[in-house]
UniProtKB/TrEMBL annotation:
Annotated protein name in UniProt: DNA-binding transcriptional regulator
Domain HTH lacI-type: 6-60
A Pfam cross-reference name: Peripla_BP_3
Family annotation (SUPFAM superfamilies): lambda repressor-like DNA-binding domains, Periplasmic binding protein-like I
Organism: Halalkalibacter hemicellulosilyticusJCM 9152
Listed PANTHER family: HTH-TYPE TRANSCRIPTIONAL REPRESSOR PURR-RELATED, LACI-RELATED TRANSCRIPTIONAL REPRESSOR
Claim: Transferase is one of the keywords in the record: no
Keyword terms of this UniProt record: DNA-binding, Repressor, Transcription, Transcription regulation
Lineage: Bacteria, Bacillati, Bacillota, Bacilli, Bacillales
Keyword Transcription regulation annotated: yes
Annotated GO MF terms: DNA-binding transcription factor activity; transcription cis-regulatory region binding
Length: 338
């Protein structure tokens, strides 16, 4: 695997900030908080980004300040997931500081064995969909592996997920309880295991409540791409009637749905309600503020570290799957049916 040049967008994706903020930080410009600046510089250094500012920065390499350390392997995430993953990495960072370990962040296209001396490596945390090829290579290091939001049949590893099914089950039941009967799930269930599990939670609630409307039997599986809004607008305009509520697979999709509905003349929540999943920062700031399912992202990162430490002393037990419960957060994008 050839090592690729690290970009500002990759740093932004991991840090959960915009590329603009990363650019300001790496160019030494004002207007970025000290906490955010420190986080960006740390991540940039761990990913192997080279600049004069980083070479002069006083932030220590984790392997120089800690004899024992873990490696965090990330996939390259597109911007719509950056806030989600950034919070998880915050949780990992807090936990490794608590237990006095060092941490090195690498992207999956970097060859770990060539990057570090693995003699003091305590374990590996994979964040997101790390490829089987990379995981098999990491498994050869003979240290515990914990995967966040991912499993791989080729590599025995503990895994940690948000309880996606239960989260959407709760949200769907809440909408039904306040009078909604025509409810559509919006999200490509083939995009990720999380999306599929959220769809299953929705279906479970729909079936338990005996709702059989044709529109709710299948997900509105519009590909999660730059063309999403145009495709969704076409779907809406082809119909004489739309559902009273759209349950979206994540907050980014929900925000695109709200914007799309507005463009074709529908008002949220007057004409229909919309919900998301993840409770990213922008969900509370948009108009109307977005009802969503809150995932304790920092907690997921922390639990991954604790599970890694536990696994080092309990190699004899089979891999475990840990689910972190999610809770619904109701805001202005949902109203009861009259």
């Amino acid at each position: 695997m050839a090592r690729k040049k690290v970009t500002m967008q990759q740093i932004a994706d991991v840090a959960g900030v915009s590329k603009y903020v990363v650019s300001k930080t790496l160019n030494g410009k004002p207007g970025v908080s000290d906490q955010t600046r420190e986080k960006i510089l740390f991540i940039a250094k761990q990913l192997g980004y080279h600049s004069d500012l980083l070479r002069s920065n006083k932030t220590e390499d984790v392997n120089a300040s800690h004899s024992s350390f873990i490696i965090v392997v990330i996939e390259h995430q597109s911007h719509h997931d950056s806030l989600y993953w950034g919070k998880i990495i915050d949780g990992i960072y807090e936990a490794v500081n608590e237990v006095k370990l060092g941490m090195m962040i690498v992207s999956e296209d970097q060859q770990v064995k060539q990057l570090v001396n693995t003699a003091n490596l305590q374990g590996i945390i994979g964040v997101g969909h790390v490829s089987s090829e990379v995981l098999v290579e990491l498994h050869q290091l003979a240290v515990p592996i914990v995967l966040i939001n991912h499993e791989d049949s080729l590599v025995p590893a503990d895994s940690i997920y948000a309880d996606n099914m239960d989260g959407l089950y709760k949200m769907t039941n809440h909408l039904i309880a306040i009078g909604h009967r025509s409810i559509s799930f919006v999200g490509d269930t083939s995009f990720s295991k999380s999306f599929y599990e959220r769809w299953l939670g929705y279906r479970m609630a729909i079936e338990e409540n005996g709702l059989q409307d044709e529109i709710i039997k299948q997900p509105l599986s519009i590909p999660y791409s730059s063309e999403f809004q145009l495709s969704f607008q076409r779907w809406v305009m082809e119909r004489d009637e739309i559902p009273t509520a759209f349950l979206c697979a994540n907050d980014d999709i929900a925000q695109r749905v709200i914007m799309s509905l507005r463009k074709v003349g529908y008002n949220v929540p007057v004409d229909c309600s919309v919900t998301g999943f993840d409770n990213i920062d922008s969900s509370a700031l948009i108009k109307p503020s977005l009802s969503t399912v809150q995932v304790l992202k920092e907690s997921i990162g922390q639990r991954a570290v604790y599970k890694l430490i536990w696994r080092r002393e309990h190699r004899q037990f089979p891999p475990e799957k840990l689910l972190i419960k999610a809770e619904i957060v109701m805001r202005d994008s949902v109203v009861p049916m009259n």
